[in-house]
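Escalation from tier 1.

The customer reports that the assembly of three entities below gives different structure tokens on two consecutive runs. Tier 1 could not reproduce it. I'm attaching the input and our single run for tier 2 to review.
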Amino acid sequence: MNPLSFVRRHPETATIALVALISCLFVALTRGQWLSVGNLQSLLRLAAVLAIMSFGEAIVIATGEIDISVGSTFGIGALTFLGLAPVAGSGLAVIAALVSGILIGSINGIFVALIGLPSLIVTLGTLFLFQGIAYAMTYGFSFAATDAVRQQLVYQAIGGSTLAGLNPAILWAIGILVGLQLLIFETSLGNRILAVGGDAISSYSRGVNVRKLKFGVFVLSGVLAAFSGGLEAAYIGYADGSFGALMELSAIAAAVLGGCHLSGGRISLVGTLMGAFLLCGIQSFLIILGFQPQWYILALGVIVVLASLVDRSLGRLIMKKLG
Amino acid sequence: MHRFFRRTDIGILIGCIFIFILFSLWNHDQWFNWYTFTSISRYTAILGLLAIGQTFVILIREIDLSVGSVYGAIGIAFISLEHQLSVPLSAFLALLFALTIGLINAVIVIHGRLSSMIVTLGGLFFYRGLVYVSTHGGVSGPPREARLDWFNQLLGGHWFRVENGFLLLLLVALLSGVLLYHMPFGNHLLALGGNSASAESQGVPVNRVRIWAFMICSLFAGLSAIATLANDPQTSVSLGTGLELESIAAVVVGGTLLTGGRGTILGTVLGAFFFTAVRSEMIAFGAPPSWYTSFVGIALLLVVTLNTVLSKRLTAG
Amino acid sequence: MDNRSELDGKVSDGVTAGSAPLISVRNICLSYGNFRALTDVSVDFFPGELVGLVGDNGAGKTTLIRILSGIIAPDSGEVYFDGQRITRFYPKLAIALGVESIQQTIGLCDNLSVTRNYFLGRELVRRIFGLRFLAKKEMRDICAKVVRDFGLREGIDVEDEISLLSGGEKQTFKIARAVSFRNRVIIMDEPTNHLSVRERGRVNELAVQLKQQGLLVIYITHDIFQIHRIADRIVILENGRKVADVLRDAMSAEELEEIIRHGGVGPRVP
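Tier 1 run:
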């Protein structure tokens, strides 16, 4: 097969190659420290948590919409989990967290899919709304995992333990990735998601229930964001109202880096995973080198724009070569 | 007369009158005094200036998520320059910096063919990071003499108990309204927002109009920062964080439609006032700040729903 | 009849033989991604003639028109105006040169008033302190007069949003606008689409009047029979290529329809 068309069909390959290359660079520049066990463990965990949230974001973007409320959903998920775990056990707490994700996702879905409002504004509204609720929830209450909670099996399965040195979040991320990959690329549902992103009107005329689909996509995004919040909370054992602040922007950045077009119709979950990994990798790289964490934010800005530019022009270049 | 009622800002006008009356009846002593008026006018000016700039961008169906970070960056730049240059010159250069940021945003959007959301998102990160990095996390206030300088006194002082910052807002609002509805540029901008292909076919220089819109947006963000600092030179590295979302909320609640081409400066200013007034009342009642944040979210959702439903009725009928 | 040079000589009434073309396009090619919209199209247009541009959907008519209006640029080929080669063509330049097009889907902004739409890109200004302000009263009066002259419904207030007009009224308005500003070329893309029978007749009468006044009128349509009645010359595009360029008198409407149907069988074209 023509290498160029292979890359076009599987944009992940370019991203994976890029990430591999940059990783080598990091290792070299930090004299191996970047690849140290300790660093790698925390890096992989952070990336896994971000990736799970980014998967949901990527799917929303694939339908041509956007969800900037995931940061607040993350926070609500974390707070719900830690708030209920001491009282009702981790198992129920996890379920409650997922339900909170469904709730927030549904609100988004109703306004975007059923009423027809622009997703940027709707999710902006829910971002604010639930940010406020998250702060209100923590007003005067502490949300921390007690020792009893830390012993619970579910808690450990979510994130309060290590398996061969790796946090369970990593396994969760891989599992969710596989599940979603199958969903998007092997089922008709996935096909419809991409069709809607490509051209909502055409797919509607073909019988795709655009509304139901978009609604479902927002619910999925909410669930994944809440779950990732639970994972983070289980690892840290503590959560407050600022949990998840600005994370939505990182999630969008990861999706864009991974090759998702903001106009919809294209998605790469593996690419999104790579994107999340790259972002966290850059962050840890900067920290190791002694840069203040704020440099990461600056870098993030440049990366987001550069990645989009490259993705755009690469896409057009490939189209021209093939056409 | 019927055209009056089709204005996009009727809703927010009614809303503002409503809360004004409501707060006056409900909480007369705390609401109806100079102290409240001063603090409200001050914050309305800050948010309002930002939101007016954002209005220009939203009218052409774009968005500027970087205004909060630009606000911070220009503010910090202004203060830093004051240590070495005269105050007016510092302000001038800081505003020039703001214009440049707007130009960069526009150029990347137009020539990179990227969505303004992604580009200004990158800007949000970049300029915030720039602020952190160049100040090493700590910001010192402006030099003593600067605070007493005539320029800062002019911007930060008051005139018969009315905050000068608020007067600046009114002036900018007036000029912006004139620009938008009484000058050819404004017609071009509204046309571009309503139907970019039609505007282009009629000879409107669409790219140039876009560039100006983004530049105005960043400029006003910078202006807002300078006016804030002249008045209240306390500052921190996180100056402006979150303001971009509030500015969008003010614009949208003020009646400007996201479909482009429809909206007024008055609506935006009223939107800024609306949020500021509610926030002030909430604080007066002792509600924790998180309630205000949630309120913004709810108000945004409700108003956009209302606007969309109404505009669908209007254009269909 | 098949020879191009003969056609050059035999131009329509009102134009002397051998006069220079007002607009000339040579070897125009344009692709949208993989799709070849126009391939090697060369046409001359002369002042004072009414040229019918005919072809099936996707033949390239609208694309050619967009090139002539400066909206898009060809991938290759040249555009000449008044004998001068135009290297960078854009809408404002086209309008300044007197080329105005009436397209089907674009041309009006629903959020603007009738007056603002009328003067879009050509606003009347008055200068105060060197700044240009909209001369609203003058624009309103002129627009109202044009609207009346063209017989648009009486109840229209030119300060109302143009979205209040019906499809047919909007079309008539676009034509009124194109005609009223001093133009040399009027391009009409399916101008009679949303119009009633009576309005259709008026538009066609108008097109002929304009031609008689010395303007170049390029008239795109599907309806070969309709255009055959009023055009001086007919150009047929098919799949992005020019397949016929004949005087109206040279062929009957039926013969031309045959050409369209069979996509190119007929008079050879260089």
